[in-house]
Amino acid sequence: MFELNKFKNPKNFRGRNKIIVQLWWIVQATFFALSPQVLYPWRRFLLRLFGAKIGKQVVIRPNVKITYPWKVIIGDYSWIGDDVVLYSLGEIQIGSNTVISQKSYLCTGSHEYQKQSFDIYNKPIIIKDSCWIATDVFIAPGVTIENEIVVGARSSVFTNLYEKGVYIGNPAKKVK
After folding, report:
1. Rounded average pLDDT over 111-129
2. Which of 73, 123, 125, 165 has the most crowded Cβ, counting Cβ within 10 A?
3. Separate counts of helices (H) and strands (E) for the chain
4. What is the enclosing helix (H) or strand (E) of 94?
5. Is the backbone peptide bond immediately before 171 cis, with ω within 30 degrees of 0?
6. Residue 67: which of 36, 35, 39, 109 has the closest Cα?
7. pTM tops 0.90
8. Are the C-beta atoms of 96 and 75 separated by less than 8 Å?
9. How far apart are CA 69 and CA 24, in angstroms?
10. Residue 95: left if φ>0, alpha if ψ -120 to 50, beta else—which one?
11. What is the mean pLDDT of the chain?
């Protein structure tokens, strides 16, 4: 089915050269991940150093994984919890006063499974203001979540969520 020898990363897919990518991964595994829990300003500094746009007083836990910080924007007073993965092959925008709870996975990339070359692609994820993405939520590439939406624990979001309310399930459906 697949002929992976035909796979090629699109030009400039990472958004930075290989050396910067590797340097970030080293910094993330050491200075970022090993920093004490309370050193939120330090982690904001490191992310900004690598091109992330991070708002005021953002809380980012030391075990958060961010693939390419230069593709991440986080608004003021937002929280990114333990073991969150921001798989930022594409841009991830998180609004202000928004919580991404522990073990959630924001995935901006995937592969064209119907092509033998298994081409990779990315699509942005946008989560607007005053949202709560509860524990262990998966958000798929290309999803937009509007203001004041709660996504319940262990839900999976594959389509845009436009109406204020509470969404749960796989796929996430509005319940309130």
Report:
1. 93
2. 125
3. 2, 19
4. strand 92-94
5. yes
6. 109
7. yes
8. yes
9. 8
10. beta
11. 96
